[in-house]
Amino acid sequence: MNDMISLQGKTFVVMGVANFRSIAWGIAQSLHSAGANLIFTYANERLEKGVRELADSLENPNNLLVQCDVTSDEDLAKCFASIKEQVGTIHGVAHCIAFANKEDLKGDFVDTSRDGYLLSQNISAYSLVGVAREAKPLMVEGGSIVTLTYLGGERVMQNYNLMGVSKAALEASVRYLANDLGKYNIRVNSISAGPIRTLSAKGVGDFNTILKEIEEKAPLRRNVTQEEVGDSALFLFSDLARGITGENIHVDSGYHIMG
Ligand code: NDP
Ligand code: KAL
C-alpha cells in the first residue's frame, strides 16, 4: 500500500494496457498501490485475455474490463455508459493510447499520406477529446485526466515524424480540454515520458541508441521506468496535484532541458 497517497474508494479508468510492459500497466500498479478501484479498457477481443490475466494478478481483484476501440464513437459511448451502469461515479482516466502506421515512422515526414496522417490523429489525439467528453458526466465529484506524450511533440526527433505532429495536437488538446473542464473541477494534464521499451517501441531499429543517449546526456544519467511514470500519474490523480491543470510534466530524467 502506498503510504503517501490514498485513493481508497476512488475509481479510475485505465486505457491502453497491451501487456505487462505497457506504461498503462505501470500506472495501474501505482493506482492499485494507493487503494484505487480500476476499470481497464482494451481495444479488441484479441487482447482481452491478456488484460484480464493482468487485472486478476492484482491483489484484491475487483477490477472491471470494458472493450473500447477509440476510433469508434459508438464504442466510446457504450464503454462509458457501461462504466456508469456498473460503478456510477469515476474520479479519473489514464489515456495511454497512440498509433501510427509503421511506414510513417521512418523516412521523411513530408511523404506522409493523408490516410496515415488522419489515422494517427484519430487514434492518438482526437481520442482524448472523445474520452474526455464521455467521461465528463461520470466525474461528478471532480476528476483528473492524464495522457501520455513524448518530447517529439515539442521538437523534431528522428523517425518520430507523424507521431510528433499527433503528440503536438494531443498536447494542445490537453490545454483546451483543461480550460473547458476546469469549471467542473476536472483537471487535464499530460506526462511526457522518456523512452521505455514497450510493445509500441518494438521494431524501432535504433531504440538502444536512443536509450544510450539518455544515459549519457540526461541529468539523472539513466532511463525512466513504467513505475516512475506510474507514480507521477498517481500524483496527478491525487489531491496533491489539485492546483495543476493544462500542464505537461516531463518524466524523462530531465533530458528535455538539455541543448
Ligand atoms: P503499448 O504498446 O503498451 O500501448 C499502446 C496502446 O495503444 C495499446 O494498448 C494499444 O492497444 C492501444 N491502442 C492502439 N490503437 C487503439 C485503438 N484504436 N483503440 C484503443 N486502444 C488502442 O505502448 P506504450 O505503453 O509505450 O504506449 C502508451 C502511450 O505512451 C502512448 O500514447 C505512447 O505514445 C506513449 N509514450 C510512450 C513512450 C515509450 O517510450 N514507450 C514514450 C512517451 C510516450 P492494442 O494493443 O489493443 O491495439
Ligand atoms: C523517436 C522514437 C523512435 C520510434 C518512432 C516512432 C514511435 C512511435 C510510437 C507509436 C505509438 C508506435 C506505433 O504506432 C507502432 C505501430 O505502428 C506498430 N505496433 C503495433 O501495432 C503494436 C502491436 C501495438 C500494441 O502498438 C500500438 N501503438 O497500438 C520514439 C521512441 C524513442 C519513444 C516512443 C516509443 C514513443 C511513443 O510515443 O510510443
TrEMBL record:
Pathway: Lipid metabolism
Highest taxon in the source lineage: Bacteria
Enzymatic class: oxidoreductase
Transmembrane domains' residue ranges: none
The keyword ATP-binding belongs to this UniProt entry's keyword annotation: no
Keywords: Fatty acid biosynthesis, Fatty acid metabolism, Lipid biosynthesis, Lipid metabolism, NAD, Oxidoreductase
InterPro entries, A to Z: Enoyl-ACP_Rdtase_NADH, NAD(P)-bd_dom_sf, SDR_fam
Reaction equation(s) it catalyzes: a 2,3-saturated acyl-[ACP] + NAD(+) = a (2E)-enoyl-[ACP] + NADH + H(+)
EC number in record: 1.3.1.9
Xref: PANTHER family: ENOYL-[ACYL-CARRIER-PROTEIN] REDUCTASE, ENOYL-[ACYL-CARRIER-PROTEIN] REDUCTASE [NADH], CHLOROPLASTIC
Annotated family: Belongs to the short-chain dehydrogenases/reductases (SDR) family. FabI subfamily.
Protein name according to UniProt: Enoyl-[acyl-carrier-protein] reductase [NADH]
Source organism: Gottfriedia luciferensis
